[in-house]
What does this fold into?
Amino acid sequence: MSSLKNKNILLGITGSIAAYKAGQILRLLGKKEAKVYPIMTEAATHFVHPLTFKALASEEVTYKLFKEERGAEHISLARLADLLLIAPTTANIIGKIAHGIADDILTTTVLAVDCPVVIAPAMNHYMYKNPLVQENIKRLRKFGFKFIGPEEGKLASGEMGPGRISEPFKIVEYVEKVIKSKNDFKGKTFLITAGPTRERLDRVRFISNYSSGKMGYALAEEGIARGAKIILVSGPSSLDPPSNVEFYSIESAEEMRREVKCRFAEMDGVLMAAAVSDYRPLYTEEGKIKKISQEKINLKLIRNQDILKEIGNKKGDKILVGFCAEVENLEDEARIKLKEKNLDLIVANNITLEGAGFGVDTNIVTLIDKKGNIEYLSKMSKREVAEKIWDKIKELMNVQS
Ligand SMILES: Cc1cc2nc3c(=O)[nH]c(=O)nc-3n(C[C@H](O)[C@H](O)[C@H](O)COP(=O)(O)O)c2cc1C
It folds into this structure.
């Protein structure tokens, strides 16, 4: 049975030259027995008459926010939606959504939905490459909007470049994937660690690292979107905890260890994205360490327990995902850790690469699983990396069961 059968898909159509392709998309969704509700912007009606979609769609076509006969249609449509697909999506609509603007029926509906939103951009390549458009896309990805395309090729203007809307069949395939993945981890509970730890030297000083928590928080957001229950144990971070997670704030590696250990038994899996301090000061001064006349002072450090190794020893059939940030010999180091800690998957990143590692919104990672399968991911947003990691976890769980 098609995963789209009886699913309510809102199909946003915007003022792009590719608006006619929405007709094909609508037909393909219809073939898969989805219920499709076209929502057109005013500009889209200049490209394709609403009557076209009226003839093709099983449901009513909407293109006005204010109507005499019906009330708040953006709300009623939003409430029934299983997914909102915008295909094609103009640069204008991307910009409006990225800034929370809701001044037409489509953008108002976008703000009101509580379902995945898939965006299929279509525009001239200069428009697509414009830094403002790129910045808006980045912002939307960060908030969990899903993108399909655009693709490189010949554009309506005759020029070559990125900006072509993806082929309708690819868009529909992607919609199916997103709908299916909504319940990927329903009934499963995962613990995710994120951020740095702080190891206290005295009342005012600590040893820590540059981790921002962005990768772990992105994993938590994506896990929630796929139906999992998420326990997020985080070191100090300036990020707001994602909604719907059970959140625990910790400071030191030892506090993180305690939290992970006491919750481990109830988990289906643990993703250790935190940058945990390997060492802590042997002594912590109650007050403040005084500046003295000596030029050099010695700091004695003691090893923290390796949380991953500890839980790896008794993991049973739980899924265990580790992360490693390296500056050289990335794959070799990752393989050693994978084995040593009895992990199912390791996410390795070379923090010397631009756009990877601490603090930034993107990452460049390599996934290595316990069978030795290796997947090199290109630079992408941390939310997209999270998507790939959850895809891999799903695959590993399917193999196990
Ligand atoms: C012939 C023509 C083709 C256009 N094609 C596109 C396009 O493919 N992508 C795009 O972002 N804007 C395109 N535009 C510009 C949009 O129609 C314009 O920005 C409009 O305000 C978009 O409205 P909407 O985003 O509310 O649908 C085109 C305009 C014209 C006149």
